[in-house]
Amino acid sequence: MEDRKIHAPRQPRFLNPFAMRLPVGAVVSILHRISGVLLFLLLPVAAWLFAESLAGAEGYARVQERLASVPGRLALIFVLWAFLHHFLAGMRFLLLDAGRGNRLAAARRMGWMALLAAPVATVALLWAWRG
Fold first, then answer.
1. What CATH fold (topology level) applies to the domain 24-130?
2. DSSP 3-state assignment of 99?
3. CA distances from 46 to 23, 53, 67, 99 (A)
4. Which terminus, N or C, of the chain has the lesser number of Cβ atoms within 10 Å?
5. How is the chain split into domains, by residue range?
6. pLDDT band at residue 34, thresholds of 50, 70 and 90?
7. pLDDT at position 4, please?
8. What angle do CA 69, 70, 74 make, to 5 degrees?
9. Closest alpha carbon to 92 in 35, 9, 8
10. Ordered DSSP codes for 21-64
């Protein structure tokens, strides 16, 4: 008789996504998907605000009041960041699909550029809008 060890089947491992160190390309990809879903889900809210602002002077004043409040301003800043990130990450993915930046160093550099450019552009646009 042959001496064989009986192995238990491998159990699935619980991977904590918050404890994993993801590469920058993965972070950009995940944020690209999240920002796209959020922008899509916020379209009815934007349409409702637009319709209310066109309903008359009172509706326009209500929309202005909502957007001028602290939660409204924070929401606008978040939506601006989400749009900029989604746009810049989308441009990165289009360049990758076109064969540009496929080397590891270039892909990482483009990932960092997309990841950092969105908040920088958000702050720059807010500064330009305010000034």
1. 3 helical TM bundles of succinate and fumarate reductases (1.20.1300)
2. coil
3. 34, 10, 11, 36
4. N
5. 24-130
6. very high
7. 65
8. 115
9. 35
10. ---HHHHHHHHHHHHHHHHHHTHHHHHHHHHHHHS-HHHHHHHH
How far is the first Cα of the chain from the last one, in angstroms, to the nearest whole number?
86
The Cα 89–Cα 86 span in angstroms is 5
d(CA 101, CA 123): 27
DSSP type of residue 75: H
Q: What pLDDT, in 10s, does the model give residues 70-114?
A: 999 999 999 999 999 999 999 999 999 999 988 999 999 999 999
Angle subtended at Cα 53 by Cα 41 and Cα 86, rounded to the nearest 5 degrees = 30
Q: Max alpha carbon distance in the chain (Å)?
A: 92
The distance from CA 67 to its chain's CA centroid, rounded to whole angstroms, is 21
